[in-house]
Design goal:
The structure is a homotetramer.
Chain A (H helix, E strand, L loop, with lengths): L8 H17 L6 H8 L4 H7 L2 H19 L12 H17 L6 H11 L5 H24 L5 H20 L1 H7 L10 H16 L5 H9 L2
Helix pairs in contact in A: 1-2, 1-4, 1-6, 3-4, 4-6, 5-7, 5-8, 5-10, 7-8, 8-10
The first copy, chain A, binds a DNA duplex (21 and 21 nucleotides) through helix 1 and helix 3.
DNA sequence: CATGAATGAGCCTTCATTCAT
DNA sequence: CATGAATGAAGGCTCATTCAT
């Protein structure tokens, strides 16, 4: 287990500070000086322990990815016996938990979010190691729900709709807090958000199945 | 004060370049050096015409907001006689156009998008002047669709779901291009995206109206 | 003439200081901080006027090359009517002047010398623009002296012997000043050195022509 | 004090790596990091075994000086019974071998060469312990060749001409490889170089002896 | 004997800004 | 109106060194 990372107070402190600052500011805006100041470490310690800023970022990414996947297991709590609808709900809830939770286990979510907005050189790694597996779980669930005959494109679009909603509830804090000062969408509202997104998405996905008699009303013109 | 409309070749060139670069990179990453280089202007010209980088950004914001509102009218092309469903479709299409279109009129959309994801000091201004009015149009449409008896909270959640989907289709390019190299979600697919998002959202919004006999199947557990 | 380099006090001061310090320390050891301190300029001035340390070095190289070639003309003071022996003497004297002179016009010689010992990225430029033309003059002189039938290799070796002697008289200062504190080989001894090197080289070059009856004595065993 | 001969694997490895790297890069450019990395040792080992970088350099200098003097005896393989001409040839050959040979015994030659061109604080030591004895051998040979009546100055100049040629053939690699890509002056051409330098120098030195009838042609003007 | 860890000084570069003309 | 010139602060990085075990 701990064969690779030689324990070190300074190293740990840097990882801690870097996790927080990278999560808060993103890779480009975060400065190693700030990180070291907050960690109470010398700037050169980063070179010693991680090589350079990139190495530190990569280490932080891997570290908090592990923590996140320990806290929220990779299978997203989905059991094979569940129905697709239940699986979708579980996926959304798990996804929201990962990206909305506060505290240390959520730093990975924030890091991921930053990479989503402004991809750095580390984005390719994240896509392959984290995003693709997760996205594949979702697409398979969606495919199971909307039926076999559907086109790949439709599955993709639908999956993106779901991810988009989840991510927005995470990123819209600055907007919402200004538009509706009272409203809060934090980790304590995850159940509500799960219900909401699952509801919207599920009915949206099933639209075609019911299209025969209901589509009329909506899109007849 | 009256630094607004003094026509000047240099000033125009800077506005042009700044619009493009701010839209592309966002406020923090964009540098006045790049802007001036592209505008063929002296660096000090920014100080002269706009005071500083902030002043330039503000001027750019205002300028392209005007252009955007000329190209995409503030009422989003929605006519009062339309049905709520048609209005929603119009809103989504208009919103997508604004954020996905290329060329000058779309720069404001991109600027907005950047502010959405990583708010700067200019965000408060944008929220009040642009986002709030637009968001209110959406909430009123949504409220009309899901019925009067519904709670404000539900309306808000639903509106956010719609906005979230639209924004995600705009910002997911880096991910999608890596996950599914062939798939493209650009300004040429706006009709497809409009159909998709409208479809999902509309059926999602209407879930409660049909909840009596259909909710059973979905959330039976 | 002065169309390119916009005159500027700071720029000139930096060129002056950089010339001295680069000549003294060589490119890698010289620091822009020292240069700016000595020039009484801000560090960022280097970025403004020359881009970066490399740009400054290149500018210094070009500038003092011009001065050196103005002071010691490119044809090395050789006239076409001179005999090869006289040309050799003129070349050696000119070469020594260039590399041993003190003061500003000699900085180029020192820069060249540093590049000779520890080539940097700028070495290729110097080889093509300065060293090759100069070396070709020498080889043609040498070829004329040792006769037409001789191999290229012999001409090359002989030319190198001459250059080697000249350079050593320039670079041996630290050694000589320690071994023989009284002896001095500076710019004031250039005539003596010219005589010496010309003598050695000329007789050395002509060895084969006299080989018939004299070589015996020397290498008979 | 007695830090000289405590055998230790790490110490030996550092000496080995330091010899190679110092020989290759010279004292200022070589970094203790590189040395330790190549030696597979910890950085702090240098402090432990040698005090600091200076101490290491000094130890390396002494160590490879010993090896060099074992491989190439201090008398340069010159026997007392040889003629001055033979002695000169032997000296040149020996000198070339020392500075051009590859492999461990030649490291000292390279270290010396670096000090020659850019003297460090260690130069004084080398001058007294190595250069002076060696140079005295050369001057005595030269004195024997050009005759007793000659001035010291002439002997010095001539000796420097010889050393200068040898050193140049060692250091001109970067230039020659660019000017004449095909030509090579390495350790395999030592015999050729020895012949060449001996030839040039010998005839050069003897110029005055033949000056009566030949100087006319050369310096008639 | 040896080493992992930590340090402070210094490197080059880039930024937005402001001065003076 | 406009610009060339200059500035101070801060960025990431690397160096030889030293501490504590």
């Amino acid at each position: 287990m701990n064969d690779k990372k030689t324990t070190s107070k300074t190293r740990d402190a840097i990882m801690e500070a870097a996790g927080e600052i990278f999560a808060e500011e993103g890779y480009p805006k975060a400065t190693v000086r700030d990180i070291c100041r907050q960690a109470g470490a010398n700037i050169a310690a980063i070179n010693y322990h991680f090589g350079d800023k990139k190495g530190l970022y990569l280490a932080v990414l891997k570290h908090y990815q592990e923590i996140a996947f320990q806290t929220y297991p990779p299978n997203l709590g989905i059991e094979k016996t569940q129905s697709p609808e239940e699986k979708l709900r579980a996926f959304i809830r798990s996804f929201l938990l990962r990206i909305m939770d506060d505290g240390r286990p959520a730093w990975f979510g924030k890091l991921l979010a930053h990479e989503f907005m402004e991809p750095t050189w580390a984005f390719d790694i994240l896509v392959e190691e984290t995003i693709r597996p997760s996205f594949q779980i979702l697409t398979s669930i969606v495919a199971a729900i909307i039926g076999k005959g559907k086109k790949e494109r439709k599955v993709l679009l639908s999956s993106m709709s779901i991810v988009g909603q989840c991510l927005y509830f995470r990123h819209s804090h600055p907007v919402i807090s200004r538009l509706f000062p009272g409203e809060i969408f934090g980790c304590k509202q995850i159940d509500e958000l799960t219900d909401h997104i699952t509801g919207i998405s599920l009915h949206g996905l099933l639209q075609d199945k019911r299209a025969k008699h209901q589509q009329v009303k909506i899109c007849k013109r």
